[in-house]
Structure formats: structure tokens, C-alpha cells
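Researcher: Checking consistency across runs. Here is Aluminum-activated malate transporter 9-like again:
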Amino acid sequence: MNGKKGSVEIDIPPPNKAKQPEDGNKSGFQGFPCKAWIWSAWEFCKDDVDRVIFSFKVGLAVLLVSLLILLRGAYEIFGTNIIWSIITVAIMFEYTVGETFNRGFNRALGSLLAAILAIAVGELAQLTGQIAEPIIIGLSIFLIGAITSFVKLWPSLVPYEHGFRVIIFTYCFIIVSGYRMGNPIRTSMDRLYSIAIGGFVAAFVNVLVFPMWAGEQLHEELVNSFNSLADSLEECVKKYLEDEELNQAEFSEKVMDEFPDEPAYRKCRTTLNSSAKLESLADASKWEPPHGRFRNFFYPWSEYVKVGAVLRYCAYEVMALHGVLHSEIQAPYNLRIAFQSEIQDAANQAAELVRSLGKDIWNMKRSLKTSLLNRVHSSTERLQRVIDMHSYLLTPHYDLPDNSSNPLPKLSHVLPTTPYDFLDQEDDVCSTNHEKSSNHLTQNLTESYYEMMRKQSRRLNSWPSSEVDPFEKGGGFRIGILPQMRAVKSTAALSLTTFTSLLIEFVVRLDHLVEAVDELSKMAKFKHEDL
């Protein structure tokens, strides 16, 4: 209010300044984040430079065949039919040399068969007269389209699917053009030489200009899978033994497999999903001529797929170990640390063997793994003996000795020698203070059990919720819950047994991996090298 009584002051806010784009990420095109998009494209290119090279190679190949139309002299020779060379390059040019040759073979064979069929049917239709000719041509188009579409779905003919597609549109184009132009043979020949020119240009550019061999990619992909498996195994065992209180991930993170602090695990998960990629690279590699380090004809690329299958067979155990690492019920830290040296040694020896196998494949050398296998087996047998000798640590004890008046020794970092060193507070109270009042016993048991539940990070709605309910809901303590408490504690201890069993099973599966790598080295004629 300002001025005379009853007057009203109206405050008009000054016009706001136009909001400037943050960090220049938005341009005038309806707020399109140009800078963010450019940065994403830059990261995408930097992640794999071959993608940029492949793009420039495609552009170069298309430019070369386009010159046959742009240059007047070449256009007068080839005419408008040369446009099919551009289409052939665009369809045939693939990322690797092997895929390009495979696609080119399918296109050439499909075009040849379609041309032969079109010429035969066209000549036959011309002999029937002008009335029956279009009927025969239309019926043939229907039959060719239906038959080829059915045959390409046959499982053994799926790799030649592109060839069947080429048959359909090439046949239709030639026979329809021949019907209107009256010369199916000339139409077929023009189409074939145009395809031949485009296929030659695509193969020429792909092989001579920074070639990308599918065999090299398959070789590198398999070796990286070996290293990822070894890293994931060591990472999982390290976190299991070093984390005193394992941080349980949220349920949504477990479902989505989001573990940002475990990069090796994500790589191992990629290995499990690499079956289709390895098979695709192996199929493409069969079309490639001898090159680089792979100078043998009929190189055993299919053996790489078999080795990858055995490697995934081992990776399943590592994923199971990771599941134990992030399970809701965990063994007590002092129990896990008691077997630390044996578990760590077995995992390290196994990871070393896996890396050694991958290194031999990368160097294309064949070496004996007897010493490494013996060390892996020895460390695993030692772990088995320790688990067997001290199995009492992993089983429940409902009846304690009556004369155990002294406190039970705690579990140390060395191998334990007593079956009671990892029991919780309620067991000590029951054994040393048997003559105390039941109220005091009940209070101690309640506190110790509640503390154990808190450390295990169990939620009210997760298993085992029935044991947590009396304390979470403020209810009274029942003496009958003691066996249930011991059962939960036993289940937590047995999770260590599960972890060690999975580790031992992983070592057992390594024998099959060694055999698969040895078979690959024999068939690929790797250079023999004795250790």
C-alpha cells in the first residue's frame, strides 16, 4: 500500500531474462541437445575406432560405383543399369571381410538362379501366346515367392536367407521387365554385370582399405572372455573374504544386475551372452582367405565356438558364486575368514590357469599345463580336507556340554580347532550362566538375536520374517524360539559351504576347459612350447 488511503499498488514484475541454455547443450532446434549428442557420438567413436573406418569405407565404395554414372564416358558405356551396382554395394558391404564375402556369395548365387528361372519362364510364356503369357508370369511370381519364403525358414538354410530374398526380387524384376521390354535375356545380362561390378568394388575396398577380419575379432573376443572370467572369479572371492559386513543391494538392483562397483562381474555376464556373437564371427571367418596369423586353409574356426561353450560352462559357476556373495543370508565374518587362506589360494590358482590358457590362445602357442593343473588340484584338495576336518563349524549344535563353565574361545585368523568359537552370545549365556534367572537369560538372548538380525540386514518382509516378528512388533520373547534361532544361524553358516562347493565345482570344470583348448591348439597347429 502506498499513497492515499484506499489506494492499491500493483507490482508488475520485470520481464525475466530468457533462460540461457545450460552449458550450451541446447540449440535453437526446439531445445535439441546438440552438444550432448555430439559428445555421445564422440564417446561412441572413441570406444571403437573401427566403426568410423567402416563408415568411411562404405562411403568410398558407394562413391566409386557412383562415378560410373556421374562420368559421361562411363555412363555412355554402362547406361542406367549401373544403378544396380550402387544397390549391390549398399546391401553387400558388411563390417568384416568374411561377412562381406558371405553376403556377396548369397547375392551372386541368388541373382544367377533368379536370372536362369526368369529366362526359362519368360521364354516359355512367350510360346503360349499373348493371352496366357501374363497369367503364366503372374502364377510363376506367386510360386517363386511362396516357395523361397518357405525354404528360407528351414533351419539348415537360415544362413542363406539373404540369397532367397535376392531370388524373389531379382526374379520379379527380370521377368516383369522382360515382359514389357520383350527381351528377358538382355535384361538378365544387364542386371548380372551390374551386380558383378558392385560386388567387385565392395570386396576390393573391404579387403584393401583397412581390412577388418572376423577371424581376428573372434580370436580377440575369446581371449578377452578368458581374462574376464579370471578377473570376475578373483573379484568375487576378494569381496566375499574382505567385506566384514557385506552390503546387500536393493532388490531392484539384484533384478537388474546393477553392480557398478564390480566391473569384472559385468564382463563375465557379457561372456555368458556371447554365444550368438561367437557363432556369427565363426561363420563369417570361414569365408575369409588365409590372412595375418591365420595362414592355414580350412582353419578350425568352429573349435573357437566349442571352447567358448566350455568357457561359459565354467562362467556359470562364477555367476553362482556371485549370487552367494549377494545373498540375504551370509556366513559370519569370523567363519569366512577362518578358511580365507585355503579359499584364496584355490581361487588364485584357478584364475592363473584360466589366464594362462587365454594367453596361449592369444600367442597361438601350445604349452603343457601339467604343473598348473597340479597346483590347482592341490589347492582344491587342501580346501576339501580343511572343510572336512572342521565340518563341525558348519553344523548346528543344540546340546552344549554341561561342564563348559569357561568362555568358549573365539575364532581367530588361523585355522580354528574348537567347534564353539563362532557361536553367538546366547550360547555363551546358556553355557556359562546356567544358574542365572530366566528373565536375565531371556533379555540376553533377545539382545543377541536382535543384533544378529541387524547385522545380517534382514528386512521384516524377507525370509526369515517369522523369527524377526516378535522383536520388530514389540512382542514378548518365547523360549521356544531358540531352536529357530539356531536353525537360522546354521543356515547362515552353511552358506559358506555353498560358496566353497561352487568354487570346487569350478575347478573341476577347468579340466574340460583345458581339454578344449588343447584340442583347438592341435587342430589349429599352434606352435608347441614346453614349460
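Researcher: Does this match what you'd expect to see?
Model: One thing to look at in this run: The beta strands are 365-366, 527-528.
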